[in-house]
Design brief:
The chain is mainly alpha-helical and 249 residues long. It has 13 helices and no strands. The chain folds into two domains: 3-87, Multidrug-efflux Transporter Regulator, Chain: A, Domain 2 (Orthogonal Bundle), CATH 1.10.1660; 120-248, no CATH class. The protein has helices spanning 3-10, 14-22, 41-55, 60-70, 75-108, 120-127, 136-151, 154-165, 171-179, 189-201, 204-207, 217-224, 228-248. The chain is globular. Residues 1-69 form the HTH merR-type domain.
């Protein structure tokens, strides 16, 4: 198969295939005498597996680690792994359809919030944040939570929102610390002091959801919505809270 043929077969673009080559995810195939790449069944299976893993929300670095474990496996084993990926994706889609059905019923009954539809878990959480609704950071965080509510799988979303619920009594202080950094630079001494205060308010249950290495696309998007000093303080607070949690383990 030529690059256009394998791309069409798997459901991606030739540009995507070249990108996966460049990222080292998809090895370059042998070339024919005319210089064109020649793809076979194994390359098609590998490309399909990369696509499915990416569609499950994994970063390319995570996909690379998973594929490294596939090295040396027989084709049947790789196909079985691909089947597992498809099963997970099917379950994820079914979860989203179930959520959509519930929200559709709410919408038809006129019970959807202005910035909804929201899950029942997020609705309960936001109901407890009344005292901080005048905080600019709280308003941004509401948008962040609505975003996460719509993109996270049910199990992860439920656990994260339950952990956030443990901060309700400290939310006013938490947002006040961040509001105070709206005009601060990342190297402002107040950033480090505020980070220590923020870390004290973060429960261990919430720290368990923080990334252990470089942040992914979702975290980067959320931080991009904050002022530089706020983002620096929150990143430092997350590291402090994670270190504290590990020290207690």
């Amino acid at each position: 198969m030529r690059i256009g043929e394998i791309a069409a077969l798997v459901g991606v673009t030739p540009r995507t295939v070249r990108h996966y080559h460049h990222q080292g995810l998809l090895p370059e195939p042998a070339r024919l005498g005319n210089g064109y790449r020649h793809y076979g069944l194994r390359e098609a299976v590998l490309l399909a597996r990369i696509r499915r893993l990416a569609e499950l929300g994994l970063a390319l670095e995570e996909v690379r680690d998973i594929l490294a474990d596939d090295q040396g496996r027989e084709l049947v084993e790789v196909l079985e792994k691909l089947d597992d990926d498809l099963a997970r994706q099917q379950a994820l889609l079914q979860d989203r359809r179930t959520r959509l059905h519930v929200l559709l019923v709410e919408a038809r009954a006129g019970r959807v919030a202005a910035d909804g539809p929201l899950s029942p878990e997020l609705t309960r959480l936001l109901a407890g944040l009344g005292p901080v609704t005048d905080s600019p950071t709280a308003a941004k965080d509401r948008d962040h939570l609505v975003f996460l509510d719509n993109v996270l799988p049910q199990e992860q979303r439920t656990g994260l929102l339950a952990a956030l619920d443990g901060m309700r009594d400290h939310a006013e202080r938490f947002y006040a610390l961040l509001d105070g950094l709206a005009d601060s630079r990342p190297d402002d001494p107040e950033v480090a002091r505020a980070a220590e205060g923020l870390a004290e308010l973060i429960p261990d249950a919430l720290a368990a959801y923080f990334p252990v290495s470089d942040e992914g696309a979702v975290q980067a998007a959320l931080f991009a919505d904050l002022a530089p000093g706020q983002a620096a303080a929150l990143r430092l607070a997350m590291r402090l809270a994670t270190g504290r949690k590990e020290g207690r383990a």
